[in-house]
């Protein structure tokens, strides 16, 4: 059955209270005031062009989904009340299955879309715009806690604490999203295993993406760019095992990848262009394979906090490599040590960055290459590429 109403909070509440499973409620054009609209049957809530639900920053969450098999489409929802006690959201889904939120526009949502203990839900094609508050005064754009089999695709998210947030997720998929200008992370996930993140763009965030305390993660063909700041990075890998990074592009980040306690990660066919640091491998990073990547024009391609390295570097392109290829097989005849002595000095004494581009540093690095004394002997690319195979125009 299709039901439509011309407007008014009481009318919408009434239709939701009498709707039967399988009904479609059409929200007609105009601004409809109110909050705490409770959806308790398996319906489709369909906005017509120009339909807006506005809570005027009062009350609690706006749409509360308390049924399985609910679809919410083509609505504009705005002005959720800020609360430091409750996680108010434009759309809140608790312990539900097969909820689809599609082509909605959420403005000033505090938390925009909030999923908890739910499964087989789809969040696709939405535009989510926050007010760019600081971390302590904003919620997340798309928030999923203790969920399974969640698809987040083709959304644009900006102006929140974290653009997309996963915690205790299993089998989550994040695809083709644009997460930008968020206060903390473009994507933040913790304790979330067997998830994949593909073809997303994370830019101009406090930091790009944080992957923490997780395993069996795939990150393919994403763009990490313009994530700048003294504690910023494109991608943080912390306490993560058995990951696969392929085809990602890191451009103009303070640090492209920052790794701590990251093990058994395969990184290949990624591109690192004009970052401050390309790859920081700090404590507990072991048994990682870094191959067939391109490092071009970074201030420091690789840095580490130890003289020992139990990671494999092989067949990467290094723009700073000045070796030769006499047999013309495409690989340098001389192994390449990508860690500069100056990079180690900056790690130990950050104020040493003031000496960058001075003749003293040039001589220091050259001397270390000739007679290595401090840089890690085992961190070496034994077969560096002479030409990049992963660079994009």
Could you characterize the architecture of this molecule?
This protein is mainly β and 393 residues long. Helix content is 8%, strand content 42%. The protein is built from 3 helices and 37 strands. It has helices at 9-18, 341-348, 359-370, and strands spanning 2-5, 24-27, 30-33, 37-39, 44-47, 51-54, 63-65, 71-73, 76-78, 89-94, 100-102, 105-107, 111-116, 119-124, 127-129, 142-145, 148-153, 156-158, 162-167, 173-175, 178-180, 185-190, 195-198, 201-203, 207-220, 223-225, 235-246, 249-251, 255-263, 266-268, 271-273, 277-281, 289-291, 294-296, 300-304, 312-314, 317-318. It has a 24-stranded parallel sheet that branches. Strand 1, helix 1 (9-18) and strand 2 form a beta-alpha-beta unit. The longest helix is centred in the C-terminal third of the chain and has 12 residues, at 359-370.
List the helices and strands and how they pair.
Layout: E1 2-5, H1 9-18, E2 24-27, E3 30-33, E4 37-39, E5 44-47, E6 51-54, E7 63-65, E8 71-73, E9 76-78, E10 89-94, E11 100-102, E12 105-107, E13 111-116, E14 119-124, E15 127-129, E16 142-145, E17 148-153, E18 156-158, E19 162-167, E20 173-175, E21 178-180, E22 185-190, E23 195-198, E24 201-203, E25 207-220, E26 223-225, E27 235-246, E28 249-251, E29 255-263, E30 266-268, E31 271-273, E32 277-281, E33 289-291, E34 294-296, E35 300-304, E36 312-314, E37 317-318, H2 341-348, H3 359-370
Parallel strand pairs: 1-2, 2-5, 3-6, 4-7, 5-8, 6-9, 7-10, 8-11, 9-12, 10-13, 11-14, 12-15, 13-16, 14-17, 15-18, 16-19, 17-20, 18-21, 19-22, 20-23, 21-24, 22-25, 23-25, 24-26, 25-27, 26-28, 27-29, 27-30, 28-31, 29-32, 30-33, 31-34, 32-35, 33-36, 34-37
């Amino acid at each position: 059955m299709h039901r439509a109403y011309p407007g008014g909070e009481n009318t919408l509440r009434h239709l939701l209270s009498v709707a039967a499973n399988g009904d479609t409620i059409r929200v007609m054009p105009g601004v409809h005031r109110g909050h705490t609209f409770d959806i308790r049957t398996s319906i489709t809530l369909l906005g017509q062009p120009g339909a807006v639900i506005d809570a005027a920053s009062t009350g609690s969450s706006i749409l509360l989904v308390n049924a399985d098999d609910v679809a919410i489409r083509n609505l504009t929802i705005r002005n959720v009340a800020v609360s430091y006690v409750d996680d108010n959201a434009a759309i809140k889904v608790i312990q539900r299955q097969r909820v689809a939120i599609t082509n909605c526009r959420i403005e000033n949502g505090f938390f925009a879309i909030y999923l908890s203990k739910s499964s087989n839900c789809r969040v696709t094609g939405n535009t989510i715009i926050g007010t760019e508050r600081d971390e302590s005064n904003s919620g997340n754009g798309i928030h999923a806690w203790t969920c399974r089999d969640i698809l987040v695709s083709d959304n644009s998210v900006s102006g929140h604490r974290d653009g997309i947030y996963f915690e205790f997720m299993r089998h989550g998929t994040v695809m083709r999203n644009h997460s930008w200008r968020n206060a903390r992370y473009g994507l933040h996930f913790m304790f979330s295993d067997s998830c994949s993140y593909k073809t997303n763009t994370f830019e101009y965030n406090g930091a790009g993406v944080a992957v923490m305390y997780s395993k069996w993660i795939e990150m393919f063909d994403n763009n990490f760019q313009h994530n700048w700041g003294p504690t910023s990075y494109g991608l943080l890998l912390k306490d993560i095992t058995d990951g696969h990074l392929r085809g990602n592009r890191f451009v103009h980040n303070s640090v492209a990848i920052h790794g701590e306690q990251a093990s058994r990660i395969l990184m290949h066919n990624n591109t690192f262009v004009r970052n401050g640091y390309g790859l920081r491998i700090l404590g507990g990073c072991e048994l990682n394979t870094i191959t067939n990547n391109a490092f071009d024009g970074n201030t420091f391609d690789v840095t580490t906090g130890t003289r020992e390295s139990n990671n494999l570097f092989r067949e990467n392109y290094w723009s700073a490599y000045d070796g030769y290829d006499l047999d013309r097989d495409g690989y340098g005849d001389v192994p390449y040590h990508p860690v500069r002595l100056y990079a180690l000095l900056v790690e130990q004494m950050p104020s040493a960055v003031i000496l960058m581009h001075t003749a003293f540093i040039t001589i220091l690095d050259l001397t270390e290459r000739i007679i290595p004394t401090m840089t890690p002997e085992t961190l070496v690319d034994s077969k560096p590429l002479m030409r990049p195979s992963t660079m994009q125009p």
